[in-house]
Design brief:
The protein is mainly alpha-helical. Helix content is 82%, strand content 0%.
């Protein structure tokens, strides 16, 4: 009976770690909780938050794509209408 309780606690720790990891943009945090228990939760809490980095990279990528679109429009590879449609998609 006590082994059952220990296994349940480890699974709960794994689920908590996975949830906290997703909030921080981390992947694979379930194993921290599963293998380390409460210590795993503490480790995941101390992990660096990657969600802001991902947002910043997406914004930088968006502006790079807009620059490329502008170059295509200037070279005549796409029309003004096509440029506006693609620009609207990127800025959503």
């Amino acid at each position: 009976m006590e082994w059952f309780f220990i296994i349940i606690v480890w699974l709960i720790c794994g689920i908590i770690c996975e949830y906290l990891g997703k909030q921080k943009g981390q992947k694979g945090c379930f194993l921290y909780g599963l293998l380390l228990g409460i210590i795993g939760i503490i480790i995941v809490i101390c992990l660096k938050d990657k969600s802001e980095e991902i947002k910043n990279n997406n914004n930088a990528n968006k502006y790079e794509q807009l620059t490329k679109l502008q170059q295509l429009k200037n070279s005549g590879a796409i029309t003004d209408v096509e440029y506006e449609i693609e620009k609207a998609k990127l800025l959503k």
